[in-house]
Design goal:
single chain; two-stranded parallel ribbon; 3 helices; 24% helix; 17% strand
Length: 119
Amino acid sequence: MGTISERWPATRRVVLEGAQDRGQPIVLSEFGGISLVSEPGAGWHGYSNARNSEELAARLQDLFTAVLGCRGLAGYCYTQLTDTEQEANGLVYEDRKPKLPLARIREIVEGRRSAGPTM
């Protein structure tokens, strides 16, 4: 059985009450939802909006730092890679053009800090 901090990180339950711990992996099946939008109120974009690429990079950095710091987490799925017609919360636009330089996205996803500016 894992410690309380492993089973209840940040006081949130990650396994069902009474579930037997058999060493099964814990996976964060969806997180993300940050949109890069310049026009507020222009339809549904995501769970939160970044006004520019620097803000997007900072928010992504915060999310990935938190996820990569979760001990006991076996894996994760960032949602979503690309924008779609109805959602603008991908890491790249619908035409697959990156919203940040690819090297910066990689640094964030791998948990490395950039030595220089994000753009």
